Amino acid sequence: MIAPDGKLRGTDCFSTEDLLRLIQSIPSPKAEPFKIWLAKVGYERIEEMEDPELTFDRAMKTYLQKGYTKEWINQCLKSIEVRKELTDEWCLRSMQEGKEFAILTDEITKAWTGRSVKGYKALKGLKKENLRDNMTNLELVLNMLAEASTTEISKKRRPVGLEKNKQIARKGGGVAAKAREEIEKQIGKSVISKKNAKEPRRNYNKMLNDPKKTVRPEK
């Protein structure tokens, strides 16, 4: 890997999974808090497999701890449900999870935002972070519309093969693109925002509601 001096040097590296396995093997009292945490997370995962509703409850708590508003969280959880319906439909059309799902998602995103998923994340200054977690309420709504429209069109057309499914993805994204254009015409600015979740949303919302503070308009 590239070292601080700019040279390539041999470096010990771990994936997240391997690092957690390493922690489990450390016979030190200092590692015990991590081991307890791993056991707790494992137990919660087993609970969620038995009662999937717990997944949503824990997701709600996690988002709240990160500073998201309840309104945004409810919107996001709904968007996850819409996404699941879409991926189920893609499975029915024999699309492969992974590369083909990513290709189709990219087509939907390009159709309604004018940017690829990679370009959209770059706009928001994201790397490995989840794009959905960094969308505004309006972006989430339009993304849901794009995915829900793709699902319904696919059910009607029953496309076969990747190319046909890509065409449907573009049509679904196009529905949201038209809605986006109309909204932007009314508000006079782009719906596609540079905002991300790095600044706690709770603080941002507080600033919006505080007349003593001003928020610079989105460029």
Describe the structure.
- By secondary structure, the chain is mainly α.
- The protein has a domain at 54-200.
- The chain has helices at 16-25, 32-50, 53-65, 70-92, 99-113, 117-123, 137-157, 162-187, 201-208.
- Helix 7 (137-157) packs antiparallel against helix 8.
- Mean pLDDT is 86; it is low at 201-209 and 211-219.
Write out key terms for the chains shown.
single chain, 219 residues, mainly alpha, disordered C terminus
Give the SSE map.
Blueprint: H1 16-25, H2 32-50, H3 53-65, H4 70-92, H5 99-113, H6 117-123, H7 137-157, H8 162-187, H9 201-208
Proportion of residues in helical segments:
55-70%
Distance N to C terminus: 38 Å
Shape: globular
- Cα radius of gyration in angstroms: 21 Å
Order of helices and strands: HHHHHHHHH
Average pLDDT level: 86
What is the makeup of the main sheet? none
Low-confidence stretches: 201-209, 211-219
Number of strands: 0
Sheet-strand content, in percent, reads under 5%
In terms of quaternary structure, the protein is single chain
Category from helices, strands and their pairing: mainly alpha
- The DSSP helix count reads 9
